What does this fold into?
Amino acid sequence: MNASPVLELSQVSVRRAENDEVVLEDINWCVGTGEWWVLAGGHGSGKSLLLQSLAGLIPLAAGILTVFGKPFTAEGRRASGWRPQIGLVFEAGGRLLRELSVADNIALPLGYHRNCSPTQALQEILPLLQALELERLAEAPAGRIGRAWAQRAALARALALGPELLMLDNPLAGMDRYHVRWWRQFLPQLVAGHPVLGGRPLTLVVTTDDLRPWIAPGPQFAVVQNRHLKILGDQAQLEAHPVVDLGDWLQPG
Amino acid sequence: MPIPTERFQRLTESLGLRVLLFLDTTRRLGAFTLITLGVVVTKAGTARQVIGPLIRAQVIGAGVRLLPIVGFIGIALGLVIIGQTLRLLSQVGQTQLIGSLFVTVLFRELAPLTAALVVLARVGTPTVVELGTSRALGDVEALEALGIDPIHYLVVPRVLGITLAVFSLSVYLLLFAVGSGWLFSFVANLAITGEDYVGQIASALRWQDFPLLALKTLSFGAVGALVACYQGLSRPLRLEEVPDAATRTVAHSVIAFLFLDAAFLVVNLLLPA
It folds into this structure.
């Protein structure tokens, strides 16, 4: 485990950009290639900020972050060249560009990074649209589709460039059973190597405020508690853990 | 009557704060301009298939769609400034001055300013609203997460499109003004032939007027677009803040136009007649 880490955090602290308040500190964590991590935490605990910091959108407050073997400090300016290797899906609809159609949203990173024509980019995303059952919504304006479908379209957009690391911020929040079931079936396929990514295994980091749908063999678990990231381990280690510590993320809302 | 000390202090404080605010806004706008310029230069060949259509959309929105109103204004200016003046000049036998009048008033001053103000009125507020909403809904972070430079995707097409639109509309406005001025002289049967009319305008123009017109219109367009983009993106806007931001866009742009106009006036005065 942890051979050729995708992410390595050493004494990392994360802060809110608006007021410089440190919300997470002293994080030491390593994410190896092909691993699947589920991070649980309450609202405002800083898990979304952690994902955004790992994606390079928010500067670190302290510590050293190593991304694909390249170290970045809190003070150092991170080059954005590795961003296409990291996919980030925001919560609550994935922040699609509302003025574009679903298909144009998904094709946007391809068109931008590979400078291909809109027709060519749309051709390339067809397998993604099919795999994520988005064909019938392809022409719909992104601002007019339901949140669950928007979240799925945002996943397709993040996968369009074939990232090596995918980070999903609370993807199941507010979803009905149909969509939750779909995500729970699709994500393990992605980690194992889905045909839309050429069968290449994917490293996955997911945040959640409810651990229950994620408890299954496969993911590693960690919780954000008292401004610290507490590594728990796999399903067996999670279940062996005192429930009282995890009650907030295991109780029905 | 002596001014009370307290009142004088309040006055100087208020004045000082306004000056500091103005300097701070100028500094921020300057930084935003430099960042945008840097992106324009460094990403000139990047993602043309994506950015190109966005620029075209801006040229259509800020330029082509405004052609009828700019044409109408051009015709009106031609009738009022050239036509009426030509009528007066013909009464005193000085129609040879029409060329100088056209160049000084319309070519150098009114056409660039009018085109810039029309474009600002039409696209300034929508730009602030679009970008303010984008910022508030997290589009900037979403683009960054995709490795797309938000300045390149959101600002550069607007700045280039609006700049080109102001330049083109100024040229059209001048053409409409020249045409309607000549039409007026023809209909009013004034003592000037079409050949003389065009010849006097041509002889009043110096070669430097053409690059200066291009520079002036391009800088007016760029400044208006940059101010609107800055006001939209500088912070997430709430709905009730949009009117204020739109007003600031117009006010800051008009102030910038005045400074630019003064600079071009000085250049014109320094050039040989």
About this structure: DSSP finds eight helices and ten strands in chain A. The domain at 5-249 of chain A is CATH 3.40.50.300 (Rossmann fold). The longest strand of chain A covers residues 5-15. Chain A touches chain B through 27 residues (CB under 8 Å).
